[in-house]
Amino acid sequence: MSHQIIAIDGPAGSGKSTVARQVARELGWSFLDTGAMYRAVTCEALSRGLDVHDEQVLGRLASEVTLTTLPRVTVNGRDVEDEIRNDRVNEAVSVVAANPLVRRAMVARQREWAAQQPVGTVVEGRDITTVVFPDATLKIFLTASPMERSRRRGDESAASVSRRDEADLTRDASPLRQSDDALVLDTTGRTVDEVAGEIIECLSARQSN
Ligand code: CDP
Known about the structure:
Distance between the termini: 14 Å
Order of helices and strands: EHEHHEEEHHEHEHHEH
Largest sheet: 5 strands, parallel
Number of domains: 1
CATH class: Alpha Beta
Radius of gyration: 16 Å
Structural class: alpha/beta
CATH topology: Rossmann fold
Number of strands: 8
CATH superfamily: P-loop containing nucleotide triphosphate hydrolases
Bound molecules: cytidine-5'-diphosphate
Helix content: 40-55%
């Protein structure tokens, strides 16, 4: 029963983090927000004044830093929980996330981390069902209407969200895409409890097969 993974992908505002967290809580599993990892590396690059377009420098940074996402997002011991959501990071994270060297370092960390979890883990991001854990126990792709997605984004402007979405969909390295065998759930007008409940039912059905 070890190493069970629920992999969740979807665009900004589709409800990934909230739903993934709730599913993990209900199952008693751990949870990994991989977006927070890309954001933390971006934060560190900005605070060191590095050129985020420099692939080698950013790739090195991504493999060297110490990262945590829970209970707080930290990079080299510095708490960046609030900083990772600011406008500068929203703007630069798409460049950092498009860097194949950064992605390689993040994916290695994500797999290593998941392998250490005692029961199971819920992991969410953009490439989790397609690249990081293509053989996950359950693969989910969350969507929501554009209006609902921009409503959920809080402080980030609609323009910034759509720029990030566009960058995530069109980059060469692991673009956001729906894997053929992922269960697609539209979260528009549905509560977190409903969506999390459906995912858990699906998992139970999968496990009893
Ligand atoms: O704002 P939202 O929660 O949708 O984004 P996030 O999950 O915090 O991710 C921030 C950015 O990191 C995304 O726009 C992607 O560019 C990148 N990302 C990625 O490329 N791959 C992942 N597995 C997770 C995030």
